[in-house]
Design brief:
Number of helices: 2
Largest sheet: 4 strands, antiparallel
Distance between the termini: 18 Å
Strand order of the largest sheet: 4-5-6-7
Bound molecules: calcium ion
Strand content: 25-35%
Helix content: under 10%
Radius of gyration: 20 Å
């Protein structure tokens, strides 16, 4: 459902990639705080804490999973943080057949394809908004479904409420994009919801026990293309770019000003009245975005991956803001919003690897403070990197934040499955880095790295690589497999293709 322009992905990977781009991106910054996800939301977005024990938790999709024999009905998995990180031992695995979850597992629903967390009912436990974008309602094929699953002392149990589709009968993949934040700065979590139109619905003041907006439901209509399965927003990313304590939104979609319809990001600032499209500004291109304060100046910085090559179109035009092998575009925040920009490829400074055609550097990315120095650090995946003859084995790169922004001259780290200590091996089509997440899941205030891959032809796996306090390390690393987490490997579950943000 997410399409890059002008580059198209191999057919075989469409399912996983579509969702990977969907939610994966919406940035997450992190620095753990015992507060709930939106309470401290400004330039740093805390990790989710679904069970309220003060240690960060992670949730991710297995939207292609069989449930009770129904192909691609979909599941979500939450792994709860412990002093020794995350494993399958402490988790919830939830489908629409789990007691309390709205709806019923049916073939092709893709429950879990997009997720976003915040404490939507203000009870101190983070909750998870989960969509099933291909849900059918009556005659509305691909209507889409959306639910909020409530956190509790036991974490996510399945207990939840449906959020009704305001445009029923539109075949519009309701909920295909989600972002949570406090867009009006009133201290309560808001939820932005996309479909295939250019209208984004914003639920203000949390979500009630009955599935309504706590305060009001409003809409915004940014200048992106509307209609068709690939239109509407491709990604919504929340963060505070101008440092005013109100969450801003970056909307990714196809621009309407030129015939090219370039993939473009728009900065939509939060105000006392909520998100203001009239004050929107166009940003650098990219699909997956993360927002966080990389240079420690108190303003959230925008990082977007433009993984396509800079290949000229037939008319000689080069895609904007692109680089051979893929590029990460950075726009630093300021009191007046987006300010200075920078670009990074594998050929920049001491960034590990070499830019090669179709590497897809910037395929996924996330921010988090690995060493607790107050500068958000960046993980970037190169999901199509070929390694030792294994096509598209994939790798991830860690670049550290500094007062001068992303440090590309020293301190970088790179991990593939062939890196000593990383579980598994490089294999064709593994796409190590199908999604990435930097969140503290040990409670030490340092962000740990989680990497999703397309292991074993789409079974998928999640690899945990902890922070040792100053760096990401392989010591204590482990992989979580679908079978360990109660997810069937029949078909293509794409376990770990999409982390909640
Ligand atoms: Ca927790
Ligand atoms: Ca809650
Ligand atoms: Ca703001
Ligand atoms: Ca900054």
């Amino acid at each position: 459902m997410h399409k890059q322009h002008p580059h198209h992905r191999p057919r075989a990977l469409q399912l996983a990639l579509a969702t990977a781009t969907a939610a994966a991106l919406t940035g997450g910054l992190l620095t753990f705080s015992a507060a709930t996800a939106t309470a401290a939301d400004s330039t740093v977005v805390p990790a989710a804490d679904f069970n309220g024990d003060g240690i960060g938790d992670v949730a991710f999709s297995a939207e292609g999973a069989y449930v009770s024999g129904h192909k691609a009905a979909g599941q979500v998995v939450a792994l709860y943080g412990t002093a020794t990180g995350v494993s399958a031992a402490k988790r919830s695995t939830i489908s629409q057949n789990t007691a309390g979850v709205p709806g019923t597992a049916e073939a092709g629903d893709a429950f879990g394809a997009e997720t976003a967390y915040a404490d939507f009912n203000g009870d101190g436990y983070d909750d998870l908004a989960v969509s099933s974008p291909h849900e059918k309602f009556g005659t509305d094929t691909d209507a889409g479904g959306l639910a909020v699953l409530w956190g509790s002392r036991s974490g996510l149990t399945g207990k939840g409420v449906a959020i009704a589709d305001p445009a029923s009968s539109s075949h519009d993949l309701w909920g295909k994009n989600l972002a949570a934040g406090d867009f009006d700065g009133d201290g309560r979590a808001d939820l932005a919801v996309g479909n295939t139109s250019s209208t984004i619905y914003v639920y203000k003041g949390g979500i009630t026990a009955g599935g309504a907006a706590g305060l009001a439901r409003t809409t915004i209509k940014p200048l992106i293309q509307s209609g068709g399965s690939a239109r509407g927003p491709m990604n919504l990313t929340a963060g505070d770019i101008n440092g005013d304590g109100r969450t801003d939104l970056v909307v990714d979609g196809f621009e309407t000003k030129t015939d090219y319809g370039w993939n473009t990001n728009y900065y939509v600032p939060g105000t006392a009245n909520g998100l203001s499209v009239s004050a929107a500004k166009a940003l650098k291109t990219g699909i997956i975005t993360a927002i966080g304060d990389i240079n420690g100046d108190g303003f959230g910085d925008i990082v977007s991956g433009a993984p396509w090559d800079n290949t000229k179109l037939s008319d000689g035009t080069t895609p904007p803001d692109s680089a051979y092998g893929g590029k990460v575009n950075i726009t630093y925040g300021s009191a007046s919003g987006p300010a200075g920009t920078a670009g990074i490829s594998q050929n920049t400074g001491s960034v590990p690897g070499t830019a090669e055609k179709n590497d897809s550097f910037g395929y996924e990315l996330d921010l988090g403070d690995i060493n607790h120095d107050g500068y958000q650090d960046l993980v970037v995946s190169t999901a199509y990197e070929d390694l030792d003859g294994h096509a598209d084995a994939g790798m991830v790169t860690v670049l550290y934040g500094s007062a001068h922004g992303v440090n590309t001259s020293s301190g970088a780290q790179a991990f593939a499955q062939s890196t000593p200590g990383v579980p598994g091996n490089d294999e064709k089509g593994d796409h190590f880095g199908l999604d990435v997440k930097l969140d503290d899941v040990t409670g030490d205030g340092r962000a740990d790295l989680l990497v999703g891959s397309y292991e074993n032809a789409g079974d998928g796996t999640v690899t945990y690589l902890p922070s040792n306090g100053t760096k990401i390390t392989t010591t204590g690393s482990r992989s979580v497999w679908p079978a360990d987490a109660g997810v069937s490997t029949t078909g293509t579950p794409a376990f770990g293709a999409n982390f909640a943000d």
